[in-house]
Each structure stands twice: as structure tokens, then as C-alpha cells.
Design brief:
2 copies of one chain form a homodimer. Chain A is mainly α. The first copy, chain A, contains 10 helices and no strands. The first copy, chain A, has helices spanning about 5-25, 30-40, 45-50, 55-75, 85-95, 100-105, 110-115, 120-150, 155-180, 180-200. In chain A, α9 runs antiparallel to α10. Chain A is elongated and about 60 Å long. The first copy, chain A, starts with a helix and ends in a 5-residue tail after the last helix. At the A-B interface, α7, α8, α9 and α10 of A face α7, α8, α9 and α10 of B.
Chain lengths: ~200, ~200
């Protein structure tokens, strides 16, 4: 066990470096040298863990999803009894995260799929898996909220969960274009307003 | 005049090629060779018109905005008397455009700023100019709709115009991740639902 620890640590360092570097400069512009420099590790170590940049990207997508999904699953708002408040709590936490630097709050998956959807089907599928999986975490709360409000709608829980993700992804793009997160915060205010109107929820 | 025509045509061909190639594979992965091949023109001709890839990107951003803003300004829904219907008409047209191929309906500006916001401030600013300028085209209709409904809100026309752009940008990312536009169509249905709820607009 003690012997395997350094290997494990270095793999985690490469994955965290991938999250930071790719979210800073995009997938295509990121080189293996950039990743090694950011991780503070050698190219020999990199190729011990990964076959190449695509292999790293696929592992980084899974690492990013596990980290993000875990953070939201364990957040305090999950204990709120009203499913509508849990949905609003999810968006509130997204807004809190906007206080960080842009590469720390934006989405690895949205960033990578934006460039690679056509040229790299493996990365596209990994991004879709992570994005769809994260959206699915909201579906139960949405379904519960719909039942609570006896909503018989021409939309379903899945489509609203994906819409919430779309607003977040688009808010990140506007934050990047304005080099600041105020605009993203306001977009998420509109998203909360939509959820409150949809579920006839008191302010 | 006749002599300048070919020059003009070739510049337009490079710009249209940039729109297609960058929206297909992203900015960093696009080479000047890709652009020349897509335009069916030589590298000599390219460097007659542009100093390099960044210069092309800046001109392509302006070209994209002029084309897109012009198409929406001249669309039939602009003649609708009710400003709320004009806003819904804008989103309807966005939904109609989703029938095209992904590189034809997605946004050059959102694609480029996603990767370059940190590494290339000139491109970031050009993308912000185009995205903010396009959003501003919706502000008058939103302000008119707010007056019509006597809405005294804790949000303003500008923030809603930017939110609309965020939903569209995020919907494009989901379309790329799923390699199809159905999910984007549904996101824009949610956007229309929000606008109707916000302005208390009959279905």
C-alpha cells in the first residue's frame, strides 16, 4: 500500500492539473508539457499514467464529474425538506461558486465539448456522460416538486434538468466574455425566478 | 471597381471559411491551411488579406455579428405589434435555425471565447462586443414588454437580454454534447415558457 501511494498521488496531480489547464486555455491549446509543468511532474511520469492527451482528457472528465457530483450531493441544501428549495439551493450553490476564479468555477466538460464535438467522438461522449449524469441528479427533486404542485405539464423533469445545465453553461460563456462573473450571477437569478414561477413558489 | 471585386470576393470567402471551420473544430485547432482549403484559396491570398490567424478571427467575429444581427433585424417577426410576441418570435427563429447542421447554427463568438478568454484578450473583447451587441438588440423589446405589463422588477431589460443569450449558448453546448439539436430545442421551449410567465402572456 505504501509503495503505491506516490503513483496514486501523481496521477491525481495530473488530473487536477488537467482540470486547471484545460479550463484556462481549452483542450486543443493544452500540451502535455503544460500539464506536466502545472502538476510539477515529469513527462516520464505522465506516460506512466496516461497513453496521451486524449487518455488524460477522458480520465479528467470522469475525475471532474466525480468531484463535482460529490460536492453537490454532500452540500447542506440537500437536507432541505421541500424539493423546490433543494432546486433553488442547487442554483444558490452554483452562484456561491462564482466567487472563485474563472478556471475554478467553469465546466471542464462544457469547455472540452465546445471544441471537440466533431473532431473527437470519444471526448464528446465522455462530456455528454458527465453533463447528462450531472443533470440527472436534479431529476428526482424536479419530479417531486412537480408532484407537490400537481403540475401536469407539456415538459418533463429531464428537460428542465437539462435546461438548468444549459443556463449554467451559457452563464459561464458570458462570464468568460466579460472576464468576470457578475453577468453569470444575474443569469442564475433569472433561472431561480423561472423555477419559482414554474412551481408557483413564494419569494 | 471591377478590379477590386476579386479581392473582395476572396476576403469574404476566407471569412465564411473561418465561420465554418472554427465552428466545426474550435479556434486553437484551426490552422491557416484549414482555412485556405475550406475557402479554396492560396496562402498567398490569405496573407494578402490577414496578418495571421488572430487577425482573421477578429475580422470573422465582426463578419459573424453583422451577418447574424442583420438576419434577425430583417426577420418577419420584427413586424409583430406586441413586444412580447417579438421576443417569442426571436426565440422561435432560433429554434428554426436548429434544423441546420451544428456548425451552421452554433455561435462563432461563444465557441472562440470559451477557449481564448484567458490567452487572447483581443479575441475575448471582440467576442464580448458581438455577444453584448446581439443581446442589446433585444433590450428595447424587453423594455417595451415591461412597460406594457407595468412590471416594476428587481431585474432590468439588459439582464434578461443577456440571460436569453446564456440559454442559447448553453443550448448549443448541450446540442454538441448530444450531437443533435433536440435538446437545444427543448431548452428554448423552457426559455419561451419563462418569458411567457414573466410577462404573464397567454399561451
Amino acid at each position: 500500500m505504501a509503495l503505491s501511494q506516490p503513483t496514486h498521488d501523481s496521477k491525481a496531480k495530473f488530473l487536477d492539473a488537467a482540470l486547471h489547464v484545460i479550463r484556462t486555455k481549452g483542450y486543443a491549446a493544452t500540451t502535455i508539457d503544460d500539464i506536466c509543468e502545472s502538476a510539477g511532474l515529469t513527462k516520464g511520469s505522465f506516460f506512466h499514467h496516461f497513453k496521451g492527451k486524449q487518455d488524460l482528457a477522458l480520465a479528467a472528465a470522469a475525475h471532474f464529474s466525480a468531484k463535482t457530483d460529490g460536492a453537490f450531493a454532500n452540500a447542506a441544501y440537500r437536507d432541505l425538506p421541500n424539493p423546490i428549495n433543494r432546486l433553488l439551493g442547487y442554483v444558490d450553490l452554483r452562484q456561491q461558486l462564482l466567487r472563485r476564479e474563472i478556471p475554478e468555477f467553469t465546466c471542464l466538460l462544457g469547455t472540452m465539448v465546445q471544441e471537440t464535438y466533431d473532431s473527437n467522438p470519444s471526448i464528446r461522449k465522455a462530456c455528454d456522460k458527465g453533463l447528462s449524469g450531472h443533470a440527472a441528479l436534479l431529476e428526482q427533486d424536479i419530479a417531486d416538486a412537480m408532484r407537490r404542485r400537481k403540475i401536469d405539464a407539456d415538459w418533463d423533469a429531464k428537460s428542465l434538468a437539462l435546461h438548468i445545465q444549459a443556463v449554467i453553461q451559457g452563464a459561464f460563456i458570458l462570464a468568460k466574455s466579460k472576464n468576470g462573473s457578475d453577468v453569470a450571477f444575474e443569469c442564475l437569478e433569472h433561472l431561480k425566478r423561472y423555477l419559482k414561477l414554474l412551481f408557483n413558489h413564494a419569494k
